Amino acid sequence: MLSAFLIFGYAAVFMVPVLSCQPKEYKTNGEQCCPMCNKGTVVQRDCTAYAGTRCRSCEMGTFMNQPNGLYNCFPCTACDTGHGLFVKQNCTATTDTVCDVLNGYYCKGLTDSNGCSLAEKHSQCEAGQRIKEPGTSRSDTVCEDCQPGFFSKDGVNCTGWKTCSESQIKVEEGSSTSDVVCGSASRHRYVFISSVVLFLIIVICLVTTGFVKARHCQINSSRMVEMKYGQKTSRWQKSLSTDTEGERGRREEEAEGSVLPEGEGEGECEGEGEGVCLTIIDTTQGDITVSFEELLMSSVLGCDIMLSALLIFGYAAVFMVPVLSCQSKEYKTNDGRCCPMCNKGRVVQRDCTAFPGTQCRPCEMGTFMNQPNSLYNCFPCTACDTGHGLFVKQNCTATTDTVCDVLNGYYCKGLTDSNRCSLAEKHSQCEAGQRIKEPGTSRSDTVCEDCQPGFFSKDGVNCTGWKTCSESQIKVEEGSSTSDVVCGSASRHRNFFILSVVLFLIIVICLVTTGFVKARKPDKSRK
Mean pLDDT, to the nearest integer, of 157-171? Predict the structure, then answer.
């Protein structure tokens, strides 16, 4: 009977219905507690009284990341590149796919594994704005309008308006999208002065020409001009228009050797012809014979020649006068000449001369020039070192430098003047017992923080609060910063205690009863 009671007692302990299963067990539909399957497997068949739980492995494209009592694995997450996601970590039998955002995108939906499920492209700041806070993998770009006196063409940085020097004047005002345009004050000043001088020269020539023509008309009306040298004069009249050959011969004979009385011959020429006559003076040095027509034509022609020469000189003074500074799209050579700059993607091969302009040559492979310039060599393209966490985001061209960006898991430690990365370093990994306070970005390292009391972290990602054991459970193991509280079934322990007490009492009763029976049984040996 004692053996029967012992078997009954232990059977009662392990076959009594329980209120809840152990942490590593699951309850079947038949209210039976079976051992869970490990990570990467799921239940193929529940346990029986004689055999444990039979598990099967997860198929390709599925996973199971926890001990379980499930019958199917979870499907792996797909990272949609069309929505700015890429596969950071492939799906395995025990872990889901980890998606992260492509460069130029930020995450709008986080998963439990700190991966991303939805991303959106960074906003682009407009001209007249600057990037106040650059977009990260977890936040969008924050834009800000340029302050007065600053401008931005590409929506990246605001640059202050240039200040024109003392040798320049402001040609065009600046705005939020364009800079102030300065021009050479010296050139404008020379143009103004030369224009005024040229205007005065033209006026003087016109007045002189008009005066000569007016005198021409006066002489035609007076019929004769007389030029007198000293006291001894002689007169030689020459018809300039209508006198015939015979009349001119007769006039010459009459005039030869004659002396003009005082007061005679002033104001008119002899004869009734319509021609213009000029009195030539017979001096002791010899006769000078010049027609008035020749004299008049020489004066007018000389004035025209002088006017043309002054016009040429005026324009030459405008365009060939030495200037103190060159225009904004020009550069000054070693000998002080102003030459046109070469365009982007080209550099100077030969400076300009009086006739041909600047001769430029294109940048060779591996070099670039990103601005109008007066240089003789292109800039070398930047190399993106993958060994230091960089990759080529945009290849180098003749007009733009290589654009480097940081690989996933790295952050930039060295920025260039154009806000590009030249040096990167790997993100720090938080330890067990810590959490990620601020995730690392392409511009900053990960910031870690210790878990508060009552929380734990196994993987250094998130801090999770310790579990609270229910009324049907008891605390089997205390929690720490790296592990959770372990709870056990209070009902099983309570039933085991009660049944143990009952079994103890039964055993005691059996022993007492057995002893009493033996005591009451007569001793046959005494008989």
Answer: 81
- SS3 assignment, position 389: coil
477: enclosing H helix or E strand: strand 473-477
Residue ranges of the domains in the chain?
192-319
Token output for 451: 């878990």
**C-alpha to C-alpha distances, 286 to 132, 230, 251, 257, 512, nearest whole angstrom:** 97, 14, 20, 13, 186
Is the pLDDT assigned to residue 209 strictly greater than 80? no
Write the CB contacts of 304 (distance below 8 Å, at least 6 apart in sequence).
Answer: 209
pLDDT in tens, 435-452: 988 888 888 899 999 999
Contact 476, 488 (CB under 8 A): yes
Q: What's this model's pTM, rounded to 2 decimal places?
A: 0.38
Q: What does the DSSP assignment read for 270-327?
A: SSS-SS-EEE--EETTEE----HHHHHHHHHHHHHHHHHHHHHHHHHHHHHS--SS--
Run of H or E including 479 = none
Rounded CA separation 493/20 (Å)? 11
- Collect contacts of 165-171 with beta carbons under 8 A, ≥24 apart: 165/325, 167/324, 167/325, 168/325
- pLDDT (tens digit, 9 = 90+) per residue, 403-421? 888 888 899 988 876 677 8
Distance, CA of 223 to CA of 245 (rounded, Å): 19
